[in-house]
């Protein structure tokens, strides 16, 4: 009986200490999600009372709203451009920073990591200045070569320019990869050397398999982040030129706060939530290429 009393008392104290976190999760996450789900079935301009319209918001998005389909295409195109480039470049950069003969490693790591802690609004403002076609830093540097581009004001280049900014601020991903390199046992590399393997063999048969959990993690996080891209399009281009950077989240914001179509925006948010959930499940279902230290296969 005494053990049961102690166990009950410990459980009570446990619930007491996690109650603030549970309340915050319920008030700021769960309830708004439930409310937005309900509003996605309503026509609501924020001012007047919501009117139930069933699935009309979802039908409207896919049938009579070309701007929505454009925002889907823009976001998909940006994701396919940014995610592979970011994963490859951050991996290669971390590999270079892990190279033993490299001098001033600590300084290079600090320089690469600093952009990732710069607020996204400040980064967007900085890169807007860099890409400015009139007095921008990039065109001024390229002027002696006779090169002058419109950069983010060119509909064919805007997504590439924003992707470059995203890769510039991916220092945290580089640090994650560096931590993974530090956990690879040297004995594995020595075994490859004994068997006469080259540096390329070490990369293919040791580095990549041992780094696969971190690569998978970075892939999942990068996909989720790219599908929710907003600030770059809002601050740098406002969706232009010619809606070439009108990202999904930017158009959702416009529907909610500029066009007062909150019900439509809620429907958009739930579609994005389901898409991200589906992609995440598919990634985990197809993660057989990921090697974990405890695998016996």
From TrEMBL:
**Subcellular locations according to the entry:** Cell membrane
Top-rank lineage group of the source organism:
Bacteria
Query: Matching InterPro entries, A to Z?
Result: ABC_transporter_permease (IPR051393), MetI-like (IPR000515), MetI-like_sf (IPR035906)
State the GO CC annotations: plasma membrane
Which Pfam family is one of this chain's hits?
Answer: BPD_transp_1
Q: Which organism does this record belong to?
A: Eisenbergiella tayi
Q: What is the protein's given name? A: ABC transmembrane type-1 domain-containing protein
Q: Give TM regions.
A: 12-31, 78-98, 110-130, 203-227, 270-292
* Membrane topology recorded in Swiss-Prot or TrEMBL: Multi-pass membrane protein
Its organism's taxonomic lineage begins at: Bacteria, Bacillati, Bacillota, Clostridia, Lachnospirales
Example of a GO biological process term: transmembrane transport
* Residue ranges of domain ABC transmembrane type-1 in the record: 76-283
Question: Which family is this protein grouped under?
Answer: Belongs to the binding-protein-dependent transport system permease family.
Q: Which keywords does this Swiss-Prot/TrEMBL entry list?
A: Cell membrane, Membrane, Transmembrane, Transmembrane helix, Transport
Gene3D superfamilies registered for this protein in UniProt? MetI-like
